[in-house]
Design goal:
mainly alpha, 15 helices, 75% helix, globular
């Protein structure tokens, strides 16, 4: 099985390399557009929230919030109160701020491993700037549509977290003596290191955006003529890369419903970005993928109900 996987991967890489050689103009244009998006939008929006998430931990805010919100977060979602910080930052900062904050909460000892993995299932979400500006304004031409999408997105995330919480009690898990092995190292992280690490993480995310944008452009060149007018086209694009899928949606109730589902899913590009910020954390992404699938499934009916008088 491993040999088959290696051969398939080698074949895909060879096809990708051949496409880059055969269609250099299209691939270069896609990379330039994606890099422009990173410099003008993604990097300015992600980097400050990455810094905030690091400072949230190093200044002791996570501990204070954990004690105050544990009576709310644990019964609802089965995680410690510090998880509220990841949920709030994820909703405010967009993908993958929530996942990075959850990983940092685990690395600092503020959450146990199982709590952090459970938190990944609902804390990593699209930001209000994208939902209101791109989805509401650019796609559906309505601030009201953007606001409804944002409320649906947040509600679906919360419902997914509640549905996936463990059954059989909400008692706090036993803590190890001395906390997490990285707790002492994470405590007191200087401001300069927070800025440096956050900048590197933001650029890493940008790298995935450029790569997926280039690959998606080459894949779309292989689709039959007129495919962009097919009903399945936005879903296919959005499954792989959320922004391109959303921008190809029709201004209709069905488009609104699919938009909410795509926002909940995030896309393979977002998942790759998320895996990159989890790489050294030791956290499994199994609950993350389950949570995104549940959130997407919940988002569609909620959006259909919320769009009754929009179209």
């Amino acid at each position: 099985m491993e040999r088959v996987k290696s051969l398939l991967l080698a074949l895909l890489l060879a096809l990708f390399a051949a496409a880059l050689i055969l269609r250099p103009a299209e691939s270069a244009q896609a990379a330039r557009q994606a890099l422009s998006l990173c410099l003008q939008t993604l990097l300015p929006s992600l980097f400050p929230f990455f810094v905030v998430s690091s400072l949230f931990l190093s200044t002791g805010c996570a501990e204070a919030l954990g004690g105050a919100l544990a009576p709310v977060m644990r019964p609802l979602f089965g995680v410690g109160g510090a998880g509220a910080g990841a949920l709030a930052l994820g909703l405010a900062g967009g993908y993958p701020v929530g996942a990075r904050t959850a990983a940092e909460l685990y690395e600092s000892g503020a959450l146990e491993k199982e709590e952090a993995e459970r938190l990944l299932g609902f804390c990593n979400n699209a930001g209000p700037g994208f939902v209101l500006g791109v989805c509401g304004g650019a796609v559906f031409g309505s601030a009201g549509a953007g606001l409804r999408l944002l409320l649906v997105h947040a509600a679906a995330a919360a419902l997914a977290g509640a549905l996936l919480r463990p059954r059989g009690g909400s008692a706090a898990p036993a803590r190890r003596r001395g906390g997490h092995p990285r707790e002492r190292r994470a405590a007191g992280v200087p401001f300069a290191r927070c800025v440096r690490d956050s900048f590197a993480a933001a650029w890493s995310v940008c790298g995935f955006v450029v790569l997926f944008a280039t690959a998606l452009r080459l894949v779309t060149l292989l689709l039959p003529a007129g495919a962009e007018r097919a009903a399945w086209y936005p879903a296919l694009l959005g499954f792989a890369e959320m922004t391109n899928g959303v921008l190809s949606l029709p201004r209709s109730r069905s488009g609104f419903t699919l938009c909410a589902a795509l926002l909940g899913w995030g896309g393979l590009s977002v998942h790759a970005q998320t895996l990159s910020v989890l790489e050294d954390s030791g956290l499994s992404a199994r609950r993350y993928f389950r949570g995104k699938a549940v959130q997407a499934a919940l988002s569609a009916p909620l959006a259909w109900l919320a769009s009754g008088n929009l179209f």
